Amino acid sequence: xxxxxxxxxxxxxxxxxxxxxxxxxxxxxxxxxxxxxxxxxxxxxxxxxxxxxxxxxxxxxxxxxxxxxxxxxxxxxxxxxxxxxxxxxxxxxxxxxxxxxxxxxxxxxxxxxxxxxxxxxxxxxxxxxxxxxxxxxxxxxxxxxxxxxxxxxxxxxxxxxxxxxxxxxxxxxxxxxxxxxxxxxxxxxxxxxxxxxxxxxxxxxxxxxxxxxxxxxxxxxxxxxxxxxxxxxxxxxxxxxxxxxxxxxxxxxxxxxxxxxxxxxxxxxxxxxxxxxxxxxxxxxxxxxxxxxxxxxxxxxxxxxxxxxxxxxxxxxxxxxxxxxxxxxxxxxxxxxxxxxxxxxxxxxxxxxxxxxxxxxxxxxxxxxxxxxxxxxxxxxxxxxxxxxxxxxxxxxxxxx
Length: 401
Known about the structure:
The protein is mainly beta.
């Protein structure tokens, strides 16, 4: 008698279990997620995978289409870069210098964006350059029915200092990879600002490496869009490197804002500070924050902390907050995480009202005080003023609803 066996189906995002090659378990830690430049290695997400289970898959399906999006009138976004031409470097083809030095897709959207975007937008800060004014990269969507894939490189050469703002507006179905390289001794700030129209879809992966004695301050600021998922990861590779990752979101009815944050302490004596804050108002307003920190076996002397705090302003809004910490060495200075989601503090409101401040104004002051902690860390006065105005408009719209 001949016996035949059939191998079990491979579930995307799974790996063989240690007690048998035929058993599969989901990937549980961020460091174990598969990476590949080939979209076929991932398959189409179903929403059951650990990295997609909080995302509204049906609303972002255009970014899973492995089709050419770069030619002629079909271009989904426009880049206004004339004013920063002196900081642009030609990056033609997938084998161009720097491209892929840090970035390797960890999901199908990133792999498709890599494949379909042949030429990168490469912003470089020269060695020893210290720039006071921010380098602003306007990214303007050309319509919700337009689909675009992009690869953006931000490179800070040794001992440089600059702020780069990726300013998104308009509307599109936009899949974006951002590769950030901070060379020895450089100090770089990157702000990803999402001011999309309400029908935009933005799925992005930011991957950064910070070298010896260098620092990266990274912001994700989101006010607009239907679904905005910006997932930043930072590898603190060099000794003495520092990473600061901050986020600010204000979600209205029907909006879904998501960030899956990853910090990998790889080199010795590295420091990380992660703080994301969000406000939500309106029926079905949704935010998702997942924070993963890995302190590697060689990352002695690490000091790391991550926190997420959410303020729910109305019934029907929901915030998911999931911090995770993985430590492979005991020789560290400190490591911790925190998460909190709640409504207004009644004691704060009572305190303000007891001093003659009306309830609506008291609520406004509480929200502003809560969110401006992130705004004030950006260090660009003009942008900070714009963000305060944006918060005020969100609050006024909520009060009028």
